[in-house]
């Protein structure tokens, strides 16, 4: 049987398998191969044909199973051997998902590419928690960024966004939390409301909320770990107050 190579990049959403798009599920159902990331619910693999090859290619900080070049090679080799490769990525493929690198690799071999967007954790998690990223007279915009550079240094852009009134969403920032807090304190903004969410949208979700200056102690106290997002800004104030009331009520 003739093999027709194809690559489809599918955004699986922020964690909860129910938050993938209908079009994303249809792509999985038509896959000959599914290459899936670390933050993907394995429930989604049920939608793939039984005959489909399912291969974990996840990368996590400190625990890397495949380098990006190796993933690119797997995409190419599996597309020519089996046909339709679905690259299942957490969140949205183009939000810190290295999608462009995988597309470039596939297209260099003449493999057609389709992209199916997904809900990014940067917007989906705050939305589910009813945290507005934009709010009239409070925040006119929001910024999404990673905490680190490729050299594992603190992202210098944090020094710029702290000067604005925009809501800031920091991904992959837990291991740089102390430095992030220090930047805000250096700009006299340690009192801004903030929240850290681990495993957002999942049953084992953990949340700490308070002021930027208290984030390090709160995270240690609640044993917050990766994956987590950090949301900072005046628009978080309502959630912080609500969360504090719930915590106080639970103590009664």
TrEMBL record:
InterPro entries reported for this sequence: 4pyrrol_Mease, 4pyrrol_Methylase_sf, 4pyrrole_Mease_sub1, 4pyrrole_Mease_sub2, CobA/CysG_C, Siro_Cobalamin_biosynth, Uropor_MeTrfase_CS
GO biological process: methylation; siroheme biosynthetic process
Pathway membership, UniProt: Porphyrin-containing compound metabolism; siroheme biosynthesis; precorrin-2 from uroporphyrinogen III: step 1/1
Keywords for the protein's UniProt record, in alphabetical order: Methyltransferase, Porphyrin biosynthesis, S-adenosyl-L-methionine, Transferase
All residue ranges annotated as the Tetrapyrrole methylase domain in the record: 6-215
GO function terms (MF aspect): uroporphyrin-III C-methyltransferase activity
Family membership: Belongs to the precorrin methyltransferase family.
UniProt name for this protein: uroporphyrinogen-III C-methyltransferase
């Amino acid at each position: 049987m003739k093999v027709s190579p194809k690559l489809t990049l599918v955004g699986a959403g922020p964690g909860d398998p129910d938050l993938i798009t209908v079009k994303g599920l249809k792509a999985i159902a038509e896959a000959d191969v599914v290459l899936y990331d670390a933050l993907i619910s394995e429930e989604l693999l049920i939608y793939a044909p039984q005959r489909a090859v399912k291969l974990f290619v996840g990368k996590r900080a400190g625990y890397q199973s495949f380098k990006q070049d190796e993933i690119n090679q797997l995409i190419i080799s599996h597309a020519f051997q089996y046909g339709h490769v679905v690259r299942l990525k957490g969140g949205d493929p183009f939000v810190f998902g290295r999608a462009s690198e995988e597309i470039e690799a596939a297209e260099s071999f003449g493999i057609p590419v389709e992209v199916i967007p997904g809900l990014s954790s940067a917007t989906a998690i705050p939305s589910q928690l009813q945290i507005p990223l934009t709010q009239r007279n409070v925040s006119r915009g929001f910024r999404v960024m990673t905490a680190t550079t490729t050299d594992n240094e603190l992202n210098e852009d944090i020094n710029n966004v702290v000067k604005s009134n925009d809501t800031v969403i920091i991904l992959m920032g837990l291991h740089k939390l102390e430095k992030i807090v220090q930047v805000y304190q250096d700009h006299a903004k340690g009192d801004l409301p903030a929240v850290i969410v681990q495993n957002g949208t999942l049953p084992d979700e953990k949340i700490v909320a308070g002021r930027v200056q208290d984030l390090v102690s709160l995270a240690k106290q609640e044993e917050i770990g990766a994956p987590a997002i950090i949301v900072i800004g005046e628009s978080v104030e309502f959630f912080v107050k609500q969360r504090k009331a719930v915590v106080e009520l639970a103590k009664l």
